[in-house]
């Protein structure tokens, strides 16, 4: 208990002002020591610089030249835009000596932005260690845009190279925008990037309660939508410890087991059915736990089968909540980070 108190005791900043909103914070965030005595901080909603006094912010707004996050706009649909902010353009482009000076400024600006974003996000994230080297991450910042500029709604971060196949490190929807489907949009977006990379992905653990709820909802909806529409068999490739793939077979109408046996490929042969993680970029383990928690996986005569009775699927889909905002993949213009 003591440790827990230690960890959560000083919620240093009580409220922040960001754009049109004054937002109550949830958790401690390690702002630099000179902000120790502040109860409220004033953020520039575009560059995320934070200040102690409102007048400072007003002065800043007159000279701040940003109207959107400092990065590439990789998605736009209606008033929604997604910006990719990457932080080490200095290293990547040093050979362009002539432009070095300007690029360095750019790289630095992005780096400060990334750090500010981490300070801001930690106010709403309990258990995450956010203070790794921001250079190793990409930030995907979702904005609602109008004639005054692009207003941040939420973001997720992603490791440039993940050995554990993480496709998302931290996710946040700012409180005034929560429960409107943006969280599921951000999650869906992270999987669309994985599909473009030709990889499967999973969020970094641990997940917060709200994070888990959002992911469960997303996984359930995506997987059950496929099971509902799909005709014929479908499989999940699950890696066992001996390296072999365990096959889980979807049977639409509870096909009798002998029939499934016939469908079984010989060892080493490619599995002939469509495979759920290939289709969704969701890691097979997450597919299994989702379907297991819905009691859709059963063990019958030595075979795992997915039971996909349309009525049962509909019931679960209803319980999984609203679909969230759709990602229109045709509006995503992006090439994977090399
Ligand atoms: N109470 C109950 N259920 C909730 C709540 C809530 N307050 N908030 C979200 N949910 C559940 C609901 O099932 C909801 O679907 P529904 O509205 O259709 O019922 C679903 O989660 C997702 O709702 P969205 O509107 O798509 O998500 P939102 O924009 O609210 O963002 C998020 C979800 C990002 C988790 C947000 O709550 C948040 O930023 N929380 C603080 C930071 C955090 O915990 N991040 C995750 C940490 S784990 C990680 O980073 C890997
Ligand atoms: Zn600014």
Give a verbal description of the structure.
By secondary structure, the chain is an alpha+beta fold. The protein is built from ten helices and 15 strands. It has helices spanning about 1-10, 55-65, 90, 100-120, 180-195, 210-230, 255-265, 275-280, 285-295, 310-320, and strands spanning about 15-20, 20-25, 40-45, 50, 70-75, 80-85, 135-145, 150-160, 165-170, 170-175, 200-205, 235-240, 245-250, 295-300, 305. The protein has a five-stranded antiparallel sheet. Strands 2-1-3-4 form a four-stranded mixed sheet, with helices on one face. Helix 5 crosses helix 6, helix 6 packs across helix 9 (about 285-295) and helix 6 runs antiparallel to helix 10. It is elongated, with a radius of gyration of 23 Å. The relative contact order is 0.11. Bound molecules: acetyl coenzyme *A and zinc ion (ZN).
Low-pLDDT stretches are 1-6, 89-105, 251-267
Q: Calculate the mean pLDDT score and round it.
A: 83
Q: Bound compounds, please?
A: acetyl coenzyme *A, zinc ion
Share in β-strands: 15-25%
- Biggest sheet statistics: 5 strands, antiparallel
State the helicity in percent bands: 25-40%
Strand order of the largest sheet: 5-6-7-8-10
Note the gap between the termini.
Answer: 45 Å
Using DSSP, what is the number of strands?
15
**Structural class of the secondary elements?**
alpha+beta
Tell me the number of helical segments per DSSP (H or I, 4 or more residues long). 10
**How much is the radius of gyration in Å?**
23 Å
Spell the H/E element sequence: HEEEEHEEHHEEEEHEHEEHHHEEH
Shape estimate: elongated
């Amino acid at each position: 208990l003591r440790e827990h108190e230690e960890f959560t005791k000083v919620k240093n900043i009580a409220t922040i002002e960001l754009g049109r909103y004054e937002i109550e914070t949830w958790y401690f965030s390690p702002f630099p020591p000179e902000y120790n005595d502040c109860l409220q901080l004033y953020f520039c909603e575009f560059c995320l610089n934070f200040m102690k006094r409102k007048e400072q912010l007003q002065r800043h707004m007159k000279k701040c030249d940003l109207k959107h996050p400092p990065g590439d706009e990789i998605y736009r649909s209606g008033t929604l835009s997604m910006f990719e902010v990457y932080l080490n353009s200095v290293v990547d482009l040093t050979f362009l000596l002539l432009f070095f000076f300007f690029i360095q400024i750019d790289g630095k600006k992005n780096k400060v932005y990334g750090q500010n974003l981490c300070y801001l996000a930690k106010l709403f994230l309990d258990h995450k260690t956010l203070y790794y080297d921001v250079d190793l991450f990409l930030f995907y910042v979702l904005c609602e845009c109008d004639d005054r500029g692009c207003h941040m709604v939420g973001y997720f971060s992603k490791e440039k190279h993940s050995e554990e196949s993480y496709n998302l490190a931290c996710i946040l929807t700012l409180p005034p925008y929560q429960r409107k489907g943006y969280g599921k949009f951000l999650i869906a977006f992270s999987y669309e990037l994985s599909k473009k990379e030709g990889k499967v992905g999973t969020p970094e653990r641990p997940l917060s309660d709200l994070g888990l709820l959002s992911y469960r909802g997303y996984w359930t909806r995506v997987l059950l939508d496929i099971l509902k529409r799909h005709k014929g068999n479908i499989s999940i490739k699950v890696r066992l410890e001996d390296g072999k793939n365990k096959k889980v077979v979807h049977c639409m109408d509870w096909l009798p087991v002998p029939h499934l046996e016939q469908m079984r490929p010989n060892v080493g042969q490619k599995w002939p059915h469509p495979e759920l993680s290939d289709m969704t970029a969701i890691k097979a383990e997450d597919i299994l736990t989702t379907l297991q928690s819905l009691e859709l996986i059963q063990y019958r005569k030595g075979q795992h089968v997915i039971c996909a009775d349309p009525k049962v699927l509909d019931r679960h889909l209803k319980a999984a909540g609203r679909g969230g905002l759709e990602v229109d993949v045709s509006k995503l213009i992006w090439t994977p980070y090399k």
